[in-house]
Amino acid sequence: MAETYVAIFEEAFRDKGAVHAYLASSLDFPDWYGNNLDALLDCLTDISRPTHIAFIRMRDEGPLARWFDKLALVLMIAARENPSVDVEILFA
């Protein structure tokens, strides 16, 4: 089974909804995906195919910096709970 690779460049997103839409599309989430961090964790822990997520963070404090901190935490929890999900967090 081929690995799915998703890169999240923090600076490319200006709102939470765009991040959720990108992840839902890139990871083939179901139509009922709730577009919030709880739903994201649920969907990430349900993934069965090998999936690598690279999250490229910015060092600047933008308007969504705290939300991106929470997103990073959700990604790390998902990687801990689901052996099919591998997460890499990098700082630019």
Structure characterization notes:
The chain is α/β, with parallel strands linked by helices and 92 residues long. The protein has one domain: Barnase, Chain D. 41% of the residues lie in helices and 22% in strands. It has three helices and three strands, in the order βααβαβ. The chain has helices at 16-26, 37-46, 65-81, and strands at residues 4-9, 51-57, 85-91. The chain has a three-stranded parallel β-sheet, with helices on one face. The model has no long low-confidence stretch (mean pLDDT 95).
Let me know the average pLDDT.
Answer: 95
Residues in β-strands, percent:
15-25%
- Biggest sheet, spatial arrangement of strands: 1-2-3
Enter the CATH topology name.
Barnase, Chain D
- This entry's quaternary arrangement is single chain
What is the H/E order? Answer: EHHEHE
The biggest beta sheet reads: 3 strands, parallel
> What is the share of helical residues?
40-55%
The CATH class name reads Alpha Beta
Number of helices: 3
Q: For this structure, what is the CATH homologous superfamily? A: Barstar-like
